[in-house]
Amino acid sequence: MHAWPASEVPALPGQGRDLRIHDTATDGPVTLDPGPVARIYVCGITPYDATHMGHAATYNAFDLVQRVWLDTKRQVHYVQNVTDVDDPLLERATRDGVDWADLAVQETTLFREDMTALRMLPPQHYIGAVEAIPGIVPLVERLRELGAAYDLDGDIYFSVDADPHFGQVSNLDAAAMRVLSAERGGDPDRPGKKNPLDPMLWLAAREGEPSWDGGTLGRGRPGWHIECVAIALDHLGMTFDVQGGGSDLAFPHHEMGASHAQVLTGEFPMAKAYVHAGMVGLDGEKMSKSKGNLVFVSALRRDGVDPAAIRLALHSRHYRSDWEWTDQVLQDAVDRLGRWRAAVSRPDGPSADALVDEVREALANDLDAPAALAAVDRWAARQEAEGGTDIGAPGLVSRTVDALLGVAL
């Protein structure tokens, strides 16, 4: 599966700072010091309705991670999956009377178009669950050999008790985990499971649903968590730098995936930092497909909204915060974009050397994009009020905003 085209990232004078970011597992800041190649895995979409502002906010956060690393003169090895076969996708296809595979292709194509318009940097490896099945089957077989998996009426489950580190990503108690498991795709009440929290590794073939040859596993399809584990281990290995996604993935998805990988490899941890973006709401509720309260990037683009303004709207809220999408949030971003473009359109202006440092420091400090926007706002206000004589300043501001915030002025 192919990703989307990359926009050019301008080089800035000097060098960026190492990233300090909040780690869910330790519930505190960690300073990441990758080697020459920083490794990041971000969980992708289930392509049955793409791309709403919750998606956009999540991928915006991890685009900033990449840009901070690139500014430190590192390379970035970025991997993202597409869960192109799963219950929600099959249910939507049945509801709409379309082929599930066609729906997945349609929505994945739209997602690529939205990411391109928003100038999100693409992953080097963009892998669908279906194409990952040949790599998933041996992992499930290995977990069975290790005694960490068991059969239940033809389905195969992972035993969370096999991992002594289980629970150390989300740090939730068993009662909270059970509630979230039921809400987020698990089946804690299924009779016969060794532990109510045990997740599915391989779903035996059901009539009328797609299935694949699983060798000794029988025909079926993979569970959600093992999909990402197979892709991450194949392309990044263990102890990569950042595992990323929305905050609703901390449990069960990232918790279960970490346990799968740790049992398979005997190594700990799967990732050096587990980083989670907040939820975006609308009308007082989390924006989600199940609630039907979605604001789509593609709809805004069709209405003529500049994608640069959408990105500025996303930057205006800290990535870890839960926040509300409103017309005013978007209007403020449109106004800000206009002020910035007017400021950099002049032939000269006040020096921007300090601005570059301010934006770098803000983003290195747990991706504080609102502080970065405020720094550019101050330069634009000085430009409007006083002007300046530095003929290189407007260009430097434009390059800084492009390189570090992904916004073309």
What does the model show?
- Helix content is 44%, strand content 15%.
- It has helices at 53-71, 87-96, 100-118, 129-145, 174-183, 224-235, 250-265, 297-302, 307-315, 327-344, 353-364, 369-385, 393-405, and strands at residues 20-23, 28-31, 37-42, 75-82, 125-128, 149-152, 155-158, 200-204, 220-222, 240-246, 271-277, 280-282, 285-286, 323-324.
- By secondary structure, the chain is α/β, with parallel strands linked by helices.
- The protein folds into two domains: 20-277, HUPs (Rossmann fold), CATH 3.40.50.620; 305-405, Four Helix Bundle (Hemerythrin (Met), subunit A) (Up-down Bundle).
- The protein has a five-stranded parallel β-sheet with strand order 5-4-3-10-11, with helices on both faces.
- It contains 13 helices and 14 strands.
